[in-house]
Specification:
single chain, alpha+beta, Outer membrane efflux proteins (OEP), 2 domains, four-stranded antiparallel beta sheet, two-stranded antiparallel ribbon, 7 helices, 54% helix
Length: 490
Amino acid sequence: MGFATLALAGCGRGQDEVAADLDIPVAYRATAESATAAWPAEDWWTGFASPELNGLIEQARARNFDILAAIARVRQADAQVRIAGSALLPALNGNASADWQHIGLGTGSSSVRGGGGRANASVDLRSYSVGLSAAYQLDFWGHNLAHRQAAVALAEFSRFDQRTVALTVVANVANTWFTALALADRLMLAKRNVADGEQTLAVIRGRLQAGTASALDVANQATLVAGEHASIPNFQNQLEQALISLGILVGEPPERIVVRPGTLTALKLPLVSPGLPSALLERRPDVASAEAQLMSSGFDVTTARTAFYPAINLTGSAGFQAAALNALISPGGFIAALAAGVTAPLFDGGALRGALEQARGRQAELLADYRKAVVQAFTDVDNALTAWRYGSEQESLQRIAVDTAREAAMIARQQMLAGTADVTSVLTAEAALFNAEDTLAQVRLARVQALLNLYKALGGGWRKSDAEKFPGLSPGMLQGGVALPVGGNR
């Protein structure tokens, strides 16, 4: 066993460094260390040489609801990065106002040309102002920067998660299609076995009339034929259900699924080899997702820790104010103000301490999830390799069993027609043949599914180096074996 260390280093003041030791095996349990790598291509499903499968997968990639939802989550995460990054820039607002006041000055008396009377006096006051106001918080402790970096890491997580969803959907489409092909094969075998059994039943009935067979012989063969016949509706039901299941995967109502399966034996089975485990972590989007979440949690710890420190806020305003609109923009009407303030938490009832401990607990949880994702990746590959190896061996042996059973059934029928074998031998041989052929169809499906699981376990042709990056992502982030933020003690 080999060990690789993924350094989880703090990027803020007062943080510790924590190492996530990863146990990276030298070779897979199911392959030799000298195995050459033959990683899946991005369009790996075309290697099965099934035009129907290619069409279904392309339709699913474009219309599957889970994939579309994952793409929408990427958009949301990108928008959240912009929201989080806004705190790093000053907030600038424009304002304009116009005020009007009518003030009465009281009453008085006057005499006009010998006459007497009373008059009211009033005045109108108008003022106009335009200006700009700005506010900015100095990110001295890196609080706002850490908040944005956490959002960036989550944006990367959403991208990796979208690829994981897409890989899962493609694998589900292929598995459902392969299952439909295997059920079509089993249905065809059941119908053929019924036809063969009925031919034998007709021969036994003829022998019964000739007095060389008993009614029990007829009943036993009729039971065998009836059992095979009864399996046909079950296979038809499962086949239809498999085709119906394709609807939700390709984003269509099941009534629009018009493909009809052929046979599993027509599939090509392309070879694939995982090479060395050290390269696997760069090819699994789910591992990259776990790493991105872990990185984001480290920045969340930084954000929670810096909330203990004072916040420095700058505010300023500038503009013009005048009593007349035509004199508004003039040197005499210019006004300006600048202020700075410091706020620091003194007593919060333990809220900040609780938030910090919560962030650290979340980080510990995601660290465990990340380590589990790494081990799960190796487990998936080893399971698929083991299933492929022994499934291939079992299919080869089962083919021999089918050939042997077919030959035995043929000999038994010939001897029965020649009158040199009893009916019991024919019944036993036909039952063995029917069972061997159906088992071969199931073993063949299991082997194809093992190959499909191997493609999925190897990441389906995805590589971290080819992943779409969020604009502005720093070169040191989300690369295997680089520094990830982990909050230390305050």
